[in-house]
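Reopening this one. Same input as before:
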Amino acid sequence: MASRKGATKRKFTKVRREAPPEHQNQSHSSVLARFFLTMPATNEGWPDAFGFRISGYGPCYILAVEEGSSAHAAGLQPGDQILEIEGHNVSSLHSEALVNLAQECADVPPSIGVVSRIQQVDILPDASGHFGFSLTGDSPLQVENVTPGSPASDRGIRPGDYVLEVNGVPVKHLEAAVGMIKASQSGTLRLGLLSRKQKRSNSSVREYIQSTEAVHQERRSKAQEFNRKVDEVLGDQPEVKEKVFTVLKQYAAERRVEYLAYALPMILCQESQQSLIDDIR
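Same output, byte for byte:
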């Protein structure tokens, strides 16, 4: 098996949550920024609350990343091996200890250093067109059985290995993966694997800090655009504007969608104000 080339080390960095200086207009911008950049206020639900799942007995690996989550925005990927948390080496910690450590960190979320450990394995089918293994589960998929003496067995695939890619395409669901594997029965099948008993690599890792600034800049731009629209629609209604920002501030802190859905129509009840509700949705 060959590890993916060009492995990179990434940082899952925190987003500033402090309010900027005390001027009212800056306070309004801060509310909008937190509305668009919001994430959990504590590490209590790490890692699930930040959109990813881990497993392992030292080292630990990322098994799944939810699209659109803060982990996804930071560039974390299934198959990443967790090397550091807040600069401390955690490669020997099992998943339970790692979760406990992360949840006790003061920074939200704690920065983590990772490196990709997906292995690309090419398998040729036997004379009957079979590869000799079966899969189970969903997000992530795992190898369930391997037939002794089969092409999969000869290539070192073992029960319990995680299958994260099929022919270079990330896979999460069993039905889709099985269909792609069947379509490869007349040629070479390439699997992106994460072995549960993988040996540590001594090869050097090229360090690269992946910034999330581009994602944050896009969200800040949305916040600024919304702020301009609020001034345009509610410019002569300061009391209504203040109520809107109060509701958004409350939502950014508590993430209660039902509160947002109830409160905004009560405040923005005129037809000319409906566009603001649409923009928030």
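So the earlier flakiness isn't reproducible anymore. For the record, Confidence is low (pLDDT under 50) at residues 3-9, 13-24, 31-37, 198-215.
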